[in-house]
């Protein structure tokens, strides 16, 4: 069972960048390196400075003890062993038999993952080995490793200002070959500080690409309406950066509107919304079986149709949802009239169809699957025929806009709906539908469309996913809601439990930021 993550907005994003001459790595070494303690006061000031400078510069020989003082002998041993692995990776020592560079990186990253107390030591080792290193290839490998370290693991609060200062100085040195990668490291560290770093270590194929100088991966995002958005993402791209890029291409650059879109990762039949501060590579597995799609999840800001891609994407999503039961529709006479108008608009939305009447087969395609059995094809054909005789045809783009505007007015538009098979509250007839929008969770009767329960999202205290009770059973969600005086609990079983759970988490994140 997994419990709900903290439903709070993103962490404080103020990371201090040191100014002036303070916080150099020599200052850090003087205060914290093991060997600096024994050097102080020897041979006069300039000799002492030179010796400490040596401590933070490249060495051709492996260190015999950790750079930092550790009372734990195991950490000291792991640190010296890591330095040898680092030298082998950078090409300063020959590799062990059958050992390649990817294995060296893995060994270092895995050690960081397992031993948080070694993060500062490993940062200092890499910084030491890229400083005044005469071998350019070795330096490049060292910076590639720093690129990974800064995106995965934070240095301690003590080392942070010194590491930040080191990266700042390296990125401002335009004559060096590594100032671009130093800038990337600065960006990685900022993101890591704000969002917590990537969760999963990279796959070998990603590391091999990085070692060959390919720092970006090709990604196709499937947009509603069949639009494919082709982009390249870096090792530490977060979802909000890609959302910003796509939305700007669609002419939706306003931050409030960008918040209303979400990327989804789909693997087999598992659908998972990606939170805006999550790293895309944590979802993209090596097997290329993950599809990334974009959807509008919240409908708060007014729509605007001056951009063709924006219109096509919104039309594609609204049309798919309408035809495939994602929007709940009632079986009334009024709804039958609406189906006729929406069928005509779909017909006109196709190019070159302004002067023709739709065939019976086309009309079936234009009718929502949930209503096909209850609407007479002949009556629909007669109604659409009459509409076509009495209305002036529209150009495809105008037909799409009118279609969207019609569907927006349907009673259950804007809810993400889920088919639920069992509920703990026996007053709720099942099967039923649960709808989630930016304000509430509603329970709707599948036949009558009557709303039997409303849970405002601000009353949701806690939720968790539930494993199936029996083999072949359905997973579920437990909701704890209500006030402190009157707490309530409800559980529900549905095949899309994880998708619904994560969708609620994403909506809560986004509405928190809005408030």
TrEMBL record:
Entry's SMART domains? B41, MyTH4
Q: Where is the MyTH4 domain?
A: 58-211
Stored CDD domains? FERM_B-lobe (cd14473)
- Give the location in the cell: Cytoplasm
Residue intervals of the FERM domain: 217-515
Its Gene Ontology molecular function terms?
actin binding
Major location category of this protein: cytoplasm
Alphabetical UniProt keywords: Actin-binding, Cytoplasm, Repeat
Q: Which family does it belong to?
A: Belongs to the TRAFAC class myosin-kinesin ATPase superfamily. Myosin family.
Official protein name in the record: Unconventional myosin-XV
UniProt source species: Antrostomus carolinensis (Chuck-will's-widow)
């Amino acid at each position: 069972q997994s419990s709900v993550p903290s439903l709070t907005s993103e962490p404080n994003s103020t990371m201090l960048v040191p100014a002036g001459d303070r916080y150099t790595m020599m200052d850090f070494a003087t205060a914290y390196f093991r060997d600096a303690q024994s050097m102080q006061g020897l041979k006069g000031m300039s000799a002492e400075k030179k010796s400490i400078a040596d401590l933070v510069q490249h060495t051709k020989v492996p260190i015999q003890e950790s750079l930092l003082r550790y009372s734990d002998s195991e950490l000291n041993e792991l640190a010296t062993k890591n330095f040898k692995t680092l030298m082998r990776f950078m090409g300063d020592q020959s590799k062990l038999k059958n050992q390649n560079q990817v294995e060296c990186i893995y060994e270092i990253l895995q050690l960081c993952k397992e031993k948080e107390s070694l993060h500062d030591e490993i940062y200092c080792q890499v910084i030491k080995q890229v400083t005044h290193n005469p071998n350019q290839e070795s330096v490049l490998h060292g910076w590639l490793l720093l690129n990974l370290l800064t995106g995965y693991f934070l240095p301690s609060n003590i080392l942070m200002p010194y590491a930040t200062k080191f990266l700042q100085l390296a990125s401002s040195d335009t004559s060096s070959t590594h100032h671009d990668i130093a800038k990337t490291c600065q960006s990685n560290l900022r993101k890591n500080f704000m969002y917590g770093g990537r969760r999963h270590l990279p796959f070998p194929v990603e590391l091999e690409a990085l070692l060959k100088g390919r720092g970006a991966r090709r990604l196709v995002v499937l947009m509603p309406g069949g639009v494919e958005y082709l982009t390249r993402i870096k090792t530490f791209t977060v979802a909000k950066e890609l959302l910003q890029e796509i939305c700007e291409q669609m002419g939706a650059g306003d931050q409030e509107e960008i918040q209303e879109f979400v990327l989804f990762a789909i693997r087999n039949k598992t659908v998972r919304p990606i939170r805006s501060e999550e790293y895309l590579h944590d979802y993209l597995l090596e097997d290329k079986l993950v599809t990334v799609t974009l959807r509008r999840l919240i409908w708060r800001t007014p729509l605007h149709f001056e951009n063709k891609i924006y219109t096509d994407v919104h039309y594609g999503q609204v049309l798919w949802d309408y035809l495939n039961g994602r929007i709940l529709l009632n079986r009334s006479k009024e709804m039958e009239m609406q189906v006729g108008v929406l069928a005509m608009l779909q017909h006109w939305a196709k190019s070159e169809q302004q002067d023709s009447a739709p065939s019976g087969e086309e009309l079936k395609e234009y009718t929502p699957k949930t209503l096909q059995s209850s609407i007479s094809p002949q009556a629909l054909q007669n109604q659409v025929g009459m509409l076509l005789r009495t209305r002036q045809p529209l150009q495809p783009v105008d037909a799409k806009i009118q279609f969207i505007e019609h569907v927006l007015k349907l009673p259950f538009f804007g809810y993400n709906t889920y088919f639920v098979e069992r509920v703990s509250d026996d007053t709720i007839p099942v099967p039923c539908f649960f709808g989630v929008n930016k304000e509430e969770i509603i329970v709707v009767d599948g036949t009558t469309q009557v709303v039997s329960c409303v849970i405002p999202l601000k009353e949701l205290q806690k939720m968790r996913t539930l494993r199936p009770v029996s083999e072949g059973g359905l997973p579920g969600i437990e909701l704890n809601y209500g006030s402190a005086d009157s707490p309530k609990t409800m559980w529900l079983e549905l095949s899309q439990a994880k998708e619904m759970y994560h969708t609620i988490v994403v909506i809560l994140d986004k509405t928190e930021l809005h408030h």
